[in-house]
Amino acid sequence: MYNPIYLDYSLNSLEPYIDYETMNIHYNNIYMNLLYNLNNLLNNKYNYSLKYLIEHIDIIPLSVRGEVLYYLSSVLNHNLYFYNISDKHNNI
């Protein structure tokens, strides 16, 4: 099971450039939903890092590979987004 990354900044700390509502939607709604769907598809069958999984996507059965790739890449994209907008650079 993959856990969400921890934000080492508050959702309103980027104002006035990115408002609280936008950050809240991206983190608590979109990102958490993507992570939930990824975890449901994988069903605790793969105990690899996200990086390993994307590099070895061929270990995922073809029947769900497209969906896994969609959610996996979306989660990684959001991790990168949250990392890059921080000046503290938490560990993704």
What do you see in this structure?
- There is one protein chain.
- The protein is an all-alpha fold and 92 residues long.
- Helices cover 57% and strands 0% of the residues.
- The protein has three helices and no strands.
- The protein has helices spanning 20-42, 50-55, 62-84.
- It is elongated.
- The protein starts with 19 loop residues before the first helix and ends in an 8-residue tail after the last helix.
- The relative contact order is 0.18.
- The mean pLDDT is 91.
Notable characteristics:
single chain; 3 helices; 92 residues; mainly alpha; 0% strand; elongated
Blueprint of the fold:
Layout: H1 20-42, H2 50-55, H3 62-84
Strand content: under 5%
How far apart the termini lie comes to: 15 Å
**Could you say which overall geometry the principal axes of the C-alpha atoms support?**
elongated
What value does the Rg take, in angstroms?
14 Å
What oligomeric assembly is this protein in?
single chain
Q: Biggest sheet, in brief? A: none
Q: Percent range for helical residues? A: 55-70%
Low-confidence spans: pLDDT under 50, at least 5 residues?
none
Number of strands: 0
* Count, helices: 3
Structural class, please?
mainly alpha
Quote the average pLDDT.
91
Write a brief caption for the model.
The protein is built from three helices and no strands. It has helices spanning 20-42, 50-55, 62-84.
